[in-house]
Each structure stands twice: as C-alpha cells, then as structure tokens.
Design goal:
By secondary structure, the protein is mainly beta. It contains 1 helix and 35 strands. A hairpin with a 2-residue loop joins strand 11 (90-99) and strand 12 (102-105).
Length: 294
C-alpha cells in the first residue's frame, strides 16, 4: 500500500482484482491520479481501490497485535477478514473485533495515543475515493469491476469514483464501467463540497446511476457519455444539491430496469431542497424516460 499526501501524482499505475487498498490519499490537496487501470472483482467480500479518507478523532494504543480504542466504535466500523485499520499511516488487517474499543490485527503497530483511520464501511467498494480532497485531478483512468462479485446490495456505494466533502476537483477523460454506480458526489458537507467538475468521461454498463450529484454546490457535469445504465443516467439530489449544472451530456439506453427509470431525474426524497439545478442541452436516446422527478 502507498500512503499519499499533498501534491503527489500517481501516473500509469496498474492494479487488478483488488482484495485490499491500493494507494491511500489522506486529506490531499492538489493530488493527481492519471492514466491508471484499476480493476475490482476481488475473490470475496468488499474491497477498495484508491482511497482518500479522514482520520478518525478517536485514539488507540496497542500491545502486540491488540488494539484498544478510546471513544471508538469498532463493531460498526470493521469486519474481521475484510477491513484494515490505519494506524500511523500503516494499514493492519483486522483479525477479530471484541467490542467497540477492542480488536486484534495482523502485525504489531507499536502505537501509543495514535489516531486511527477507517478504510470505509462494509458496502463502500470503489476504484478511486476522494474524502476531503481539494483541487485534485482524476484523469485518463480506466476503472471497472467495482460491485460485490458475490451478490448482495450492489448499492451506490460500490462505484468507480466516489467522493465525500471534497471541493474543486476535476474528474475527466476516464472510462468507468461494470460498477454499481459510475461517478458519485456526496457528503454531509462537514467540509465544503463545492465547485467540482465532471467532464469528458465515458461511463457505461452501470447497475444504478451513471453520474449522481447527491449533494454539494456548483457541481458541473458536462460533455460526458453515459450508456447502458440500469437505473438513471444522470441523477441530482436526495440531499441538498445547489446550483448544479448538467449540460451537453449524451445518454443512451438508460433505465433498462424498467418503469420509473431513465435518462435524468431530480430527487427530493431525502427531505432537502434542490436549488437552482439545471439540465440543459443533453441528448437522451433509447431510454425508458427522458426526465423524472421522484
């Protein structure tokens, strides 16, 4: 595993059938992932590719392979044999979880009063993840195979590119396919979720949504091709989505799951408002519906 910090570039990297984390980006500013081939379909369970995540506010101490947390929630965060815990920038596979404050790992971290990191929850399985990433660039990558290969939820948290609470990032010229969701912008806006651009991507053969802007402000989605999506090609909302722009995208064969799905949709079922969201000059063809409101 690689631990990646600010202003670092990964170029022409290849990883296949991921069963654990690839390069890890922690709270990055100006990081770039360029021209990589990132493949999922690990042998069992849920896995992760590139990840950007925040440190947890709780601390841990260790004795040998035993980890003791203070104010931690280990039973909710880690599944033995699936997840690893990050301690002082190193990932240690979780062997067992006794309760919320006690677990064992493979290896001996040798840490005292160290903050720990969580490589996602059980159904977070993505090729590239941005969490509190600012001014990053994800360009020219091929990302595929990120859904649960053994069945299960195949939810929107299993996707090609997913980011939380990240601002001013550019995601462009990527091919994303064979995933639960293509490109997903979301978060509770603990940190700003503003001014992200998604452009010139080819997103196809997707189980749920091609490109979704769940929340955030001034997201721009333009000149993407989205094809062969079972549910919605472009999706805005559920949480507050403000001043998003979906312009000049081409959508083909979206909504194959049947009635209620299609090319574009606004969603307000999360109880928060959609404010000044525009769909303009998009081409929608061979899809169940052109546009819907749910």
């Amino acid at each position: 595993n690689y631990i990646i910090w600010d202003h670092f570039t990964i170029n022409d990297y290849y990883c296949a059938s991921l069963s654990d984390t690839g390069p890890v980006l922690l709270n990055g500013t100006g990081t770039q992932i360029l021209n990589c081939d990132i493949s999922g379909h690990g042998p069992t369970g849920y896995y992760w590719g590139h990840r950007f995540f925040n440190e947890n506010s709780a601390t841990v101490t260790t004795t040998g392979s035993n980890v003791v947390g203070t104010g931690s929630t280990f039973t909710a965060e880690f599944t033995p044999g699936v997840h690893s815990i990050g301690i002082n920038g190193v990932l240690y596979p979780v062997v067992s979880v006794t309760d919320d404050t006690h677990l064992t790992v493979t290896g001996t971290p040798g840490a005292t009063n160290a903050q720990y990191t969580m490589p996602g929850f059980k159904n977070n399985y993505e090729g590239i993840r941005l969490n509190n990433s600012v001014s990053g660039v994800v360009r020219g990558n091929k990302i595929h195979g990120f859904y649960n290969p053994t069945g299960g939820s195949r939810s929107g948290n299993e996707g090609g590119i997913i980011y939380y609470d990240s601002s001013s990032n550019i995601v462009e010229n990527n091919e994303v396919y064979d995933c639960g969701i293509g490109i997903f912008v979301k978060g509770q806006q603990v940190n700003p979720l503003d001014d992200n651009e998604i452009r010139y991507n080819y997103v196809h053969d997707i189980i749920t949504k091609g490109i979704q802007n769940l929340s955030g402000r001034r997201t721009k989605v333009y000149q993407n091709i989205v094809a062969n999506v079972q549910q919605w090609g472009l999706f805005a909302g559920f949480f507050e989505s403000e001043s998003a722009r979906f312009i000049n995208n081409t959508l083909y064969n979206c909504g194959s799951s049947g009635a209620g799905y299609g090319g574009l949709t606004f969603n307000q079922t999360g109880g928060r408002a959609l404010i000044d969201v525009h769909f303009k000059n998009n081409i929608v063809t061979n899809s169940s519906n052109y546009i819907g409101v749910i």
